[in-house]
């Protein structure tokens, strides 16, 4: 399968929304990157992670407190991904490239690899959102059926019961399997990754080794094999659950589209911006605390239309984009409450499993 093509714009929606957003930044006289508020938030999250890691490994608490701290450490791992790595990998954390590189590499210390992530997320997912066979985020086979065009197995009739467990496996599966698969095959699904330089190879293997030292060797030495295994599983499974749910609640819903290219021309029905709006939904955008922790990824529409803009600007951009969608009679998908988005996702899985 070749990567599909997008239709040419039939309306000037994309020019208008880009112009309005550009005018907003000019009127406010602010940069599109992060500011001091983002840097302070990033420092709080990263320092909290480091201190909690030190307490768990070197000042081993009672096992009840230890398990609770492992849950918090898993959440902080996801929050570093949402708030630091994600903006850094998109080049929006700072207006200084070296700061973005450093922020993006935070994922390397947590066991994954930013080079592989950029291809999977920045290139593939952001280009071909919800296109089965291309968007690797839809590939949870054979355990889950996330798109109507995917083959249905008998097990899928129960997927709305066990999807939480499957989602929790993401982080561990990512760190210990999929990164290596991409490295060996040189592809993310059908899309080739950029040719790796020597420094990229060294970074890949060096940080994978460092992660094993920090999260396996040292903890096993300090607390023992069994306590480490229990704690690491609690930590990794909770991190995977938080990471996966946030992205699934933005794309795998009853309301979102799963476009299929026209067989002969291999062309998608919509232009790129319209495609992003039809395949993406916001959720719980009125909850500032949730937005703070999720790095603005509950404003997923704004992120997909303007991925190089820092998430601290998404609340303001949402007003512009929502109004522009209204002007052009384009549906702007949004669940005002987190539970509503979760219910929609649950029904989506149940529907695909029983279809």
UniProtKB/TrEMBL annotation:
All residue ranges annotated as the Fatty acid desaturase domain in the record: 62-333
Segments crossing the lipid bilayer: 38-58, 64-85, 97-117, 160-177, 202-222, 228-247
Matching InterPro entries: FA_desaturase_dom, Fatty_acid_desaturase
A cellular component annotation (GO) from this entry: membrane
Keywords recorded for this protein, A-Z: Membrane, Transmembrane, Transmembrane helix
GO terms assigned for molecular function: oxidoreductase activity, acting on paired donors, with oxidation of a pair of donors resulting in the reduction of molecular oxygen to two molecules of water
Keyword Transmembrane helix listed: yes
GO biological process: lipid biosynthetic process
Lineage: superkingdom: Bacteria
The protein's name in its UniProt record: Fatty acid desaturase
Protein source organism: Cyclobacterium qasimii
């Amino acid at each position: 399968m070749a990567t599909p093509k997008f239709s040419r714009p039939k309306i000037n929606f994309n020019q208008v929304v880009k112009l309005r957003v550009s005018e907003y930044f000019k009127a406010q006289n602010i940069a599109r990157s992060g500011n001091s508020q983002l840097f302070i938030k990033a420092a709080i999250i990263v320092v909290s992670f480091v201190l909690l890691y030190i307490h768990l490994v070197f000042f081993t608490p009672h096992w009840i407190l230890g398990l609770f701290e492992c849950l918090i450490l898993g959440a902080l791992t996801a929050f570093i991904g949402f708030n630091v790595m994600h903006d850094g990998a998109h080049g929006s954390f700072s207006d200084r490239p070296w700061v973005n590189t450093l922020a993006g590499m935070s994922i390397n210390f947590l066991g994954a690899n930013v080079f592989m992530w950029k291809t999977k997320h920045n290139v593939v997912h952001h280009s071909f959102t919800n296109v089965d066979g291309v968007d690797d985020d839809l590939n949870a086979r054979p355990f889950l059926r996330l798109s109507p065009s995917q083959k249905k197995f008998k097990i899928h009739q129960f997927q709305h019961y066990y999807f939480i467990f499957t989602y929790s496996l993401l982080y561990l599966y990512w760190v210990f399997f999929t990164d290596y698969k991409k490295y060996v095959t040189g592809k993310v699904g059908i899309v080739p990754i950029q040719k790796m330089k020597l420094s990229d190879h060294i970074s890949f293997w060096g940080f994978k080794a460092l992660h094993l030292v920090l999260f396996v060797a040292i903890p096993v030495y300090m607390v023992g094999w069994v306590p480490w295994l229990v704690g690491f599983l609690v930590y990794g499974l909770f991190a995977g659950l938080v990471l996966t749910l946030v992205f699934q609640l933005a794309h795998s819903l009853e309301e979102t589209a799963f476009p299929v290219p026209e067989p002969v021309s291999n062309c998608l029905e919509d232009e790129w911006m319209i495609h992003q709006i039809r395949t993406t939904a916001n959720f719980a955008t009125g909850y500032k605390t949730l937005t703070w922790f999720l790095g603005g990824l509950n404003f997923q529409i704004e992120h997909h239309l303007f991925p190089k803009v820092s998430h601290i600007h998404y609340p303001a951009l949402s007003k512009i984009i929502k109004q522009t969608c209204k002007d052009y009679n384009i549906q702007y998908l949004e669940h005002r409450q987190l539970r509503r988005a979760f219910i929609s996702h649950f029904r989506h899985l149940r529907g695909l499993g029983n279809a």
